[in-house]
Design a protein that fits this description.
The protein has helices at about 5-10, 25-30, 55, 65, 70-75, 140, 150-170, 195, 215-225, 260-270, 315-320, 365-380, 410-420, 435-470, and strands at about 10-15, 40, 45, 70, 80-85, 85-90, 95-100, 115-125, 175-180, 200, 205-210, 240-245, 275, 280-285, 290-295, 295-300, 305, 330-335, 345, 350-355, 395-400, 405-410, 430. It is α/β, with parallel strands linked by helices. Strands 1, 2, 5, 6, 7, 8 and 19 form a 7-stranded mixed beta sheet that branches. A 4-stranded parallel beta sheet has the order 13-12-11-17. Strands 14-15-16 form a 3-stranded antiparallel beta sheet. The longest helix is centred in the last third of the chain and has 38 residues, at about 435-470. The protein binds flavin-adenine dinucleotide. The site of flavin-adenine dinucleotide (FAD) has 34 residues, from strand 2, helix 3, helix 9 and helix 12. InterPro entries: FAD/NAD-bd_sf, FAD/NAD-binding_dom, NADH-Q_oxidoreductase. Belongs to the NADH dehydrogenase family.
Length: about 475
């Protein structure tokens, strides 16, 4: 247990680290409820709603438009914001340390030294990342989809890859076209394999390989499919973009029900997206992936590889010795979201796990946990007993771009709709089409209304709808 006098060193009553789906909503909720002494810390200066990253990755969304600056939100609601990256937590001193920010050699920005911030209560809302699972070449040659920067890199690589393919088609001798990324050129990180290796070779489709058939991989596949003809070059005549989802297990989308799985599978296949099961990727190289099949391995062309295989907490979790964590790098928390053995430290969202009742890493969970803690933290300050967080699952919804939206609603909403349709309710309800799309967007609308308030929130929703319907939908680089 912490022993330090909280009043002596604290810089804020409540310090929240991580301004994502959970942490930012918590800061806004606490400030709206009248708490004056809230400090939100994030390594970035603006917030982007992650469930739309696949739109940015396909070039169909605009990061700049969707970004919300933390400083502006802090001013609007009356909490404080500080840019910083968590380096360590010292529970005995009730303080955290933020890493130094190096300055630039050209003096364009000054160096910021490491800082210590004291708290009375601390909330860790650090989110999650995609693990490379120890597979060789993932970090060097594949793209991840964890951040807006990642999403922009995918959009850039996809767009330039298609252009390189187009040019190779134009200049190839008759009958030959396309890019063979496996013939290699200079490779710079995860970017540029295709454009650097744009050599003529027998024509073949531009190959996109998505590793992992979770919601992220599936939605990205559908959006890339829609965007394939809208980039820096038109899709060349006769040439195709081939999108393949590789799933390591025998089951497509292991986390959803059979009915939903079949519905999504069918829609993707109708679009020509290939789905291959029991494909364990053993290595990613420049322009190819190696797949183990029993004792053998097969190498396959892959101009763009997106690694979307699961979710774990960030690396810093393992480095914080004072707090207990699991193998997935998540802080172990009580059913009241308190870190074990520390009554003034809490964790929520993707970086937290309740052993008794593990929950999926979704914005729904993070948002509900923020709502819970907005009530719980002040109660705990008053010495009241801990309450238990209960997740109210509202269902699973996926947007498959032009292939529509599908999903299952759970809980009250499902009951209401079920009753309206004459069914008994209480079961998950399958939804499709416009209604599913509206329900899918509902989660973000709620987030926007909470963060921006009813007036700005409504304006944001209207402008979003107009942007979508009036186009051009493709982001201009
Ligand atoms: C492509 C994609 C699609 C998704 N689609 C859906 C969907 O349709 N529905 C759904 O419910 N969920 C979806 N999710 C999952 C959802 O986005 C996450 O579960 C949710 O954002 C988790 O919220 P969080 O608050 O825990 O973390 P995040 O929203 O990830 O926020 C974490 C914050 O912490 C900051 N941070 C991290 N480390 C540090 C540090 N050391 N110091 C300071 N700041 C730090 C980050 O900058 C970030 O702002 C999707 C995720 C992705 C990537």
């Amino acid at each position: 247990m912490e022993t330090h006098d909280p009043q002596r060193t604290r810089d804020a009553d409540i310090v929240i680290v991580g301004g994502g789906a959970g942490g930012l909503e918590l800061a806004v909720r606490l400030a709206k409820a009248g708490h004056k002494d809230i400090l939100l810390i994030d390594r970035d200066t603006s917030h982007v709603w992650k469930p739309r990253l696949h739109e940015i990755a396909a070039g169909l969304g605009r990061r700049q438009v969707d970004e919300l600056g933390y400083a502006g939100l802090a001013e609007q609601w009356g909490f404080r914001y500080e840019c910083g990256t968590l380096a360590s937590v010292e529970p005995e001193q009730r303080q955290i340390t933020l890493a130094a920010i190096p300055g630039r050699e050209d003096h364009a920005s000054a160096e910021v030294p490491a800082r210590v911030r004291g708290y009375r209560q601390l909330v860790l809302a650090l989110g999650g990342v995609t693990p490379d699972m120890g597979v060789e070449g993932v970090l060097e040659h594949a793209c991840l989809l964890d951040s807006p920067d990642d999403a922009e890199r995918i959009a850039q690589q996809f767009s330039r890859g298609l252009l390189a393919n187009h040019v190779a088609m134009e200049t190839a001798p008759t009958g030959d076209a396309g890019v063979s990324a496996t013939q290699g050129g200079a490779q710079v990180g995860a970017e540029g394999s295709t454009q650097d290796s744009a050599k003529e070779s027998p024509g073949r489709p531009y190959q996109v390989v998505i590793v992992g058939s979770g919601a992220t991989g599936v939605e990205l596949a559908a959006y890339l499919h829609e965007a394939r003809g809208m980039h820096d070059a038109p899709a060349p005549k006769g040439a195709k973009v081939e999108i393949t989802i590789l799933e390591a297990t025998e089951t497509f989308m292991p986390g959803v029900t059979q009915e939903l799985r079949e519905s999504i599978h069918q829609r993707l296949e109708e679009q020509g997206i290939k789905i291959e099961l029991s494909r364990q990727v053993a290595k990613v190289s420049s322009g190819s992936v190696e797949i183990s099949e029993g004792d053998e391995s097969v190498t396959r062309d892959a101009d763009l590889v997106v690694w979307a295989a699961g979710r774990v907490g960030p690396a810093i979790v393992e480095e914080i010795d004072a707090l207990e964590s699991n193998k997935k790098r998540q802080f172990t928390v009580t059913p009241g979201l308190q870190c074990l053995g520390h009554d003034s430290i809490f964790a929520l969202g993707d970086c937290a796990n309740i052993d008794e009742a593990p929950l999926p890493p979704t914005a729904q969970v993070a948002s509900e946990q923020a709502e819970f803690l907005a009530d719980e933290l002040p109660r705990r300050q008053q010495g009241e007993p801990a309450q238990t967080f209960e997740f109210k699952d509202r269902g699973t919804l996926l947007s498959l771009s032009s292939a529509g939206s599908v999903g299952e609603l759970s809980g009250k909403l499902s009951d209401k709709l079920g009753n309206a349709q004459g069914s008994k309710g209480n079961d998950d309800l399958q939804v499709r089409g416009r209604f599913a799309r509206a329900a899918y967007q509902g989660l973000q609308r709620q987030h926007q209304f909470l963060l921006l308030g009813p007036l700005k929130g409504s304006a944001e929703v209207v402008s979003d709808v107009l942007r979508r319907s009036m186009g051009p939908r493709l982001k201009v680089h």
